Every structure is written in C-alpha cells, then in structure tokens.
Amino acid sequence: MTGIDYDLEFLEDGRTIELISIGMVCDDGREYYAANRDMPVRKIRRHQWLMENVVPHLPKGHGDLRNSMSKRWLFHYGDPRVKSRATIADEVAAFIQATEDVELWANYGAYDHVCLAQLWGTMMALPDGVPMFTNDIQQEARRLGIAWDELPQQESGEHNALADARHNQIIRRWLAQRA
Ligand SMILES: [Mg+2]
C-alpha cells in the first residue's frame, strides 16, 4: 500500500462543498498543491473565518508578481499554483493514478473526500484508481486509544492545505509505528 495524505480547504454552507485549495503528499515523495481559480470569491469574502484563517495562505505570487497583486484579490490570478478546477481535476487524478494500490488519508476527512470526489462529478464518475473512500487519522487514533493531544503538534501553516497534508502524513506515520 502507498499512502497519500491530503487536505482540502473549502467553503461549505450546509448544502454544498466548494473547493478553495488542495494539498497532497505521497509516500513516494511527490507533493501537489493548487488553489482553485474558480473558487466562489464573493461568498468567501462574506465568510469571516475563511477570510482570517484560509485566505492568508492562498498563493500571492513571489517577487515582482507579488507586487502586482491587486489589493482586492484573495489570491494572485497569475500565480502558477492557481489553476482552473478542470485542470486541478486532471492533475489530481494523475497524481493519484501514478501509484498503484493507493490509500487516501485525511483528518476529519468526510467532507474532504466528498469535495475531492466531486472534482470529477458524481460517484459514478470517479476515475479508475481513485479509492472510493478516505481513511481518517482521527479514526486510527481512536482505534489505538490515543488522545489527539498526545500526537505530534503542527508547528505552523495550519489551514495551508499543503502544510496540513504534510502534518497529516506525520500523524499517520506516527500512529502506524504504534499500531
Ligand atoms: Mg486544512
């Protein structure tokens, strides 16, 4: 089995889950990060928690690019990490399909799994090689009788999808040593 730990930032309103950004790390060392240029910007602006916790981590470009960013933007439209939802769907499928016998892992991952799977449409449209469920490090910790505050703590970057995915991998591997 090869593990892929991932994390999504998203906007959910009790009916829909809309992708903001995605981070994935694979046991073979590959990493992926993208922010969705089609994210619902107007709704996000009205969401205080997202504005305070998630938007500060979105790609703003580097150097001259950063200086060219409009103050009104939540992210830099010219940053190469900002991609259309369709491009993200293709790239994420390829990232997962590049390894055989893959396990997906996330933290409180139910919403992450739905938002991930909806990149490709309905459940029926899930690409070959993409697992139909995501394992949850919360469940694994519970199974092993380990409280969350006994686990390694995330030093920085919380709510940056890639930083969160990397931390999930640390937790999953730490738990596996104790299983
Ligand atoms: Mg996160």
Question: Please, could you describe this protein's structure?
Answer:
- With 179 residues, the chain is α/β, with parallel strands linked by helices.
- The chain has a single domain, classed as Ribonuclease H-like superfamily/Ribonuclease H (Nucleotidyltransferase, domain 5), CATH 3.30.420.
- The chain is 35% helix and 20% strand.
- Strands 4-3-2-1-5-6 form a 6-stranded mixed β-sheet, with helices on both faces.
- A hairpin with a 4-residue loop joins strand 2 (17-26) and strand 3 (31-36).
- The chain is globular.
- The chain starts with a strand and ends with a helix.
- Magnesium ion (MG) is lined by residues 7, 9, 159, 161, 164.
Jot down its keywords.
179 residues, alpha/beta, Nucleotidyltransferase, domain 5, six-stranded mixed beta sheet, 7 helices, 35% helix, globular, binds magnesium ion
